[in-house]
Amino acid sequence: MAKRYLILEDGSVYEGVAFGAPATTFGEIFFHTAMTGYQEIMTNPIYHNQIVVFTMPTIGAAGINHRADEAIGPMVKGVVVREVAEVSTNRLQSMSLHEFLLRHNVPGISQVDTRALTRHLRETGSQKASIVDYPDDHAFDQLRALVLTNQEVQQTSTPRAYVNPGRGANIVVIDFGLKNGILRMLNDYDANVTVLPYTATLEEVLNLDPDGIVLSSGPGNPHDIPDEMLTLIQTLQQKVPLLGIGLGHELFALANGVQVEPMRIEHHGMNHPIREQITNQIMYATQAQGYQIVKSTIKGTDVFVTHVDLTDGSIQGLRHRNYPAFSVQFFPDTAPGPVEATQPFDDFMDMVTVRRGG
Amino acid sequence: MAEKILLIGGSANGFGRETESDSASYQMVSALLKRGCEVFLIDDNPDSFTASRTDVHVEVLDLNAENLVKVIIANGITGIVPTVGGTTAIRLAFEVQQILGDQGPKVYGLSTPVLKATQNTKYLQERLQQWHLPAVQTRLASTPGEVFDAARELEFPVVVRSIAPQGQALRMQAEDAEELDQIAEDALARSLTHQVNVDKSIRGYKEIALIVMRDFRDTNVLIGGIEDMDPVGIHSADSIAITPIQTLADPVVQTLRHTAFKIARGFDIKGLLQVRFAVNPEDDSYVVTRLVPYYDRKVSLIEGATGYPMVPVMTGLMLGDRLEKVHIPSSYAEHTAMLEPTMDHVVMRFPVFTFGELELGGIETNRRLDTIQKSVGATIGVGRSLEEALEKALRAAHFSNRIFSPDLMGELTDSQVIAQLIHPQDNRILLLLEAIRRGYTVDELAELTHIDAFFFYKLQKIMQLEIDVQEHPWDIELMKKAKYYGLSDGLIAKLWSSVYDSVRRYRWDNNVLPTYKAFEPSAGEFQESVSQFYSTFETENESERLGQNTVLIIGTGAFRLGDGAAASYVMAMVSDEYKRQGYETVLMNNNPHDLTFIPQLSDKQYFEPLEISDIMNVVEVEQPTRIVVPGNRIKLINSLKAAGLKVDVIAREKYLESTLTDPKEEILINYFFDGAELHPIVLSHQTNRQVNIETAEQVVLRDLDVPEMPFAEPGLYQFVVPKMPAPGMKLQGEMRPMPFTHVAFLDKISHVDWLRILVRFILNTSTPDDEALLDRLPEFDWPYERAVLHYQDAEFKEHMNIQVPLDNGQFAMGVTYEVE
Amino acid sequence: MTKEIVDAMAMQRALTRITYEIIEKNKGINNLVIVGIKTRGVFIGKHIAERLQQLESAEIPVGELDISSYRDDQAETIAKQPLDVNIDGKRVILVDDVLYTGRTIRAALDALMDNGRPAVVNLAVLVDRGHRELPIRADFVGKNIPTSAMERIQVNVEEVDGRDSVEIE
């Protein structure tokens, strides 16, 4: 098996062994602490162009099952693990992780001291990284020259509208890098879903006569989204029930005058205690968070805090004071992740039902 | 007024009852005292370490409901804790509740329904149905026709169980109609009521256990999950167990997690609950098979594996704390109790069987594994890969067991191999390796054994690695790979026909050195101050030398037959005393349930195998001032001494001839040896059933001849003589280290911690009180007139199907005692 | 036969939703007073007040309204119990467990008016089971449960009944 190297912008080098595609890759690196759900994580568009480090040391034993895809194929640019299962043995899975990555030209690197790497990244925060054949000056030069795109949403959002039909409520999803889990959840309510690109206009949305709006999760910096979207949200929240998720949550905040900033230590996992303020109950949910609400900017706006991460006090949910509109930073679609996190969908569909006069 | 809380002990150790509950009680007592509670303990197990605490009221009584009620009333007990005494405590708590009703004390942590559901499968199934959760499907039938109706409905295979059976309860499995024809009538006839239960068979399903915590406000946390390598059909304790779960996809794990929460909510659990599942690998459907609402071996495994403060949290929650506010020791990060632990290592629990020891003792056994537990102990292996964890667990479990030699496998015929694949025995991991060696494909093996093919690929990898290493002596790249996947220096030496010391030196010369990683519940996300480590061969080492004046204490490892619990007690006591004497203590052990792993007892712990090479690696990191070793590790002691290290030996009895099965009595004269002089403590009588001590008899010690002393180390020793000695008579007999079981018993009945005195003599720090006590011997103010230690061996018949009498001095795993 | 149709979790969620709707409708919690109709309406009202407090860190007064003397189905006269909170000029949320014919609510409104002059009165109920006999409508409904007039709906609250649930009989 070929030796390969993971190199970081700060000059660190980690030796490992190749799996997946034999390509060279670049991207922003982050670590994920979930012990299950590697396929869902790799295929989540929120991780578009990134390199994922799994802290779970054995990855791949459950194989790949296309029903668990969150997009068509992997979204990450590279996968870093300690041990990878070369074959899939699960009877319900169609291929191994290695085959999957090979097929989609994504390189992986195994036998890396991922614990050392995690402890390093915990101190430095996320940075640029590359998986290469040789950790020479040339490789580092190329890595340092890499400019991370601010076009993540453009690259992951659907270029044109499409319908995911159902017989229930009429829901419009605005796609900022939508993951399948959100559609799966809406399917469970038999919603008639129209997915619109992130460039949708107010007119396009209202022409669909929606009973509810979902602002999807997605990759990148919320400030890279054009201001027109914020105006659109400001208008829509007054007219129809609205749910923002992830990037959608950050945009909901921006639209309501709350500031958003990058986090030094990002959250990628499913084990943080999240408190629902209104009931004072703790729940767990999958988090994939690189930006956070600036707490001090909430005062004086029309939104209030509904959820808080108890490990660092970061805000995990907001709600509008005057309209049936709210948002969550975490993923409520359980793909992967805890079942109790689906509450926001129930709440949203309740609102939709109330609006429809049910 | 302070709460008066009674902990129900677990009584004698035995199959499925190692020292894990004692370890949990010890920690729980600390937590309760800190909250200002007054703590009582009822237990008749002399090996109980908790009962040696002076800050607890200990009641030495038979564990039955009547005694419990007496203790409750006499002491005005306000609450009882049934969660740290195994199944016995659960049953007793239920009985006490039946007797005292509303007048009784509060039962902490558990509701009456969950106590009931733990005892009564039918009730559990009813509750599960009520909550729309899947239980094992079962139908009642009283005619062969009804049996077939049930089988048609449930689909084959089915299991038929007679209700109220005459004789032994049997579970008969039918794969098809033909087999059912053969057993239906028979099973009905065996029933006194002419009724049978027909269950849908879950044989071959994966066994999964989840451990959750819940507070009264319905906050639920998943602490960990364990996957058994062996499928349903082999007792879970006899299975090789792995955490974290390896082969289940996220949606399945999430469904099980959610189900466990629903059950905890349904039963209003306050604290800990373990839910056992069987998962059908064909379609990921599952059933709930059992609830374990108390601290058991799986909980202890998860506590060790995750580094989660299990006992402090469960104590707080049972007393009504919210998870958000529960008090945990300050060494943990503030939010640790609320964080669902996530692991970046693999832990494997490997069962330890004793067929070998029994056979050496001339007792025939049937090595086949089934639904009744056969293993008596376990070891763990920790690593950053499954291969590494397995290699470490394997060598921790079998380093001293010659019968486990892989060479024996070569002698099996092909049909024997197939037979053992289908009907597994204790040595199946070696059998599986042998089968792979003989060219069975992974799919064939998975089909025959119902073990997930994933594990076979791992075994294949290990085997290939061993072959590669063997074929390329002194190949440094292969050595690096071998170390990376957990092969010991000893094994590599064997493969290279060399000796471990040369391999080790070669490894050093090539800078292939172990790195130690911390056990902590956040997988590196958060900074935690950690005292528990395991080794691997990677780039970053997290374990720095603890200090300039440390003692390294080597544990006694897995439970085997005989003195497992007592040995654990002895080493815990010794460890604690070194700490009191001002040393920083570093502990090394491989038994996840061992008392020495109680966090308060040492400053740093290594979960490692105890081969010489593993120990030397830790010695190099810690550079201890002294190393404490149980006396039976002669080779280790010699190697350490040869390396110029200071070794403190805790004298341990070697196997003596099996003489006890005769209906005769031995007289034991028990001494404390201070390194120069023998001090007689007590004279006892031993038979195969018990050890007796009569206070009135002790006058005989006054004028007794002093026997020859063949041992040099200070310690507790025992002179065995065939009959009662007379004053002045020359003593004829044999001197041996006092069996650990007797040491623990002696501590309990004399109210003296002899081991602490011993440690002080080893360290030359004995106090005037110590010396006065020894000088006064054999004059001693005995607190009791009579004390009896009872060997408990009844379980051997039930578990191992052994009918011949056993030498209890050697084999009995469990003891109880009484005092008058 | 009694059947649980809303479990404790669902009941908690319904109260949570009502709380959010109250905030939305009132544009905040200024000047808000909760008045619960005895017995179970009081406890439900308290749960809503607790939630408002968790969110806004402000205490909302909860009054207990005894309407036995106002009911048109009571033959004998019962002494009127004065309300223990001030409702003059306040935005009152009247809370009851079940909305059925509307007669209870009418009585409650009479009682409220006897106790002061609120700015606005909104009605919140945990269950609306239909069969109205008066032109009364709830502003906040936890759960719409269509029922037959033959059926009995029982709302259980932890403080009174030892558990939270809605049962149908």
List the helices and strands and how they pair.
The complex is a heterotrimer of chains A (358), B (820) and C (169).
Chain A: E1 3-8, E2 13-20, E3 25-32, H1 38-42, E4 50-54, E5 58-59, E6 78-80, E7 83-84, H2 97-103, E8 107-110, H3 114-124, E9 127-132, H4 137-145, H5 152-156, E10 162-164, E11 170-175, H6 180-188, E12 192-197, H7 202-207, E13 212-215, H8 227-239, E14 242-245, H9 247-255, E15 260-269, E16 273-276, E17 281-284, E18 287-293, E19 303-309, E20 315-320, E21 325-328, H10 343-355
Parallel strand pairs in A: 3-4, 4-6, 5-7, 6-8, 11-12, 11-13, 13-14, 14-21
Antiparallel strand pairs in A: 1-2, 1-9, 2-8, 3-9, 10-12, 15-18, 16-17, 16-19, 19-20, 20-21
Helix pairs in contact in A: 8-9
Chain B: E1 4-8, H1 20-34, E2 38-42, E3 57-59, H2 65-75, E4 79-81, H3 86-100, E5 106-107, H4 112-119, H5 121-130, E6 138-141, H6 144-154, E7 158-162, E8 171-174, H7 177-190, E9 196-200, E10 206-214, E11 220-231, E12 241-243, H8 250-266, E13 271-279, E14 286-292, H9 297-306, H10 310-318, E15 346-352, H11 355-360, E16 377-383, H12 386-398, H13 414-422, H14 428-437, H15 442-449, H16 453-471, H17 476-484, H18 489-495, H19 500-509, E17 515-518, E18 532-536, E19 550-554, H20 564-580, E20 584-589, E21 604-607, H21 612-622, E22 626-630, H22 634-642, E23 647-650, E24 666-673, E25 678-686, E26 690-694, E27 715-721, E28 734-737, H23 740-750, H24 754-762, H25 768-776, E29 786-792, H26 794-800, H27 808-811, E30 814-819
Parallel strand pairs in B: 1-2, 1-4, 2-3, 4-5, 18-21, 19-20, 19-22, 20-21, 22-23
Antiparallel strand pairs in B: 6-9, 7-8, 7-9, 10-11, 10-13, 11-12, 12-15, 13-14, 15-16, 17-18, 24-25, 24-27, 25-26, 26-29, 27-28, 29-30
Helix pairs in contact in B: 1-10, 2-3, 3-4, 4-5, 6-7, 14-16, 16-17, 18-19, 20-23, 20-24
Chain C: E1 3-6, H1 8-26, E2 32-37, H2 40-56, E3 62-65, E4 91-99, H3 103-114, E5 120-128, E6 140-144, E7 153-156, H4 158-161, E8 165-168
Parallel strand pairs in C: 2-3, 2-4, 4-5, 5-6
Antiparallel strand pairs in C: 1-8, 7-8
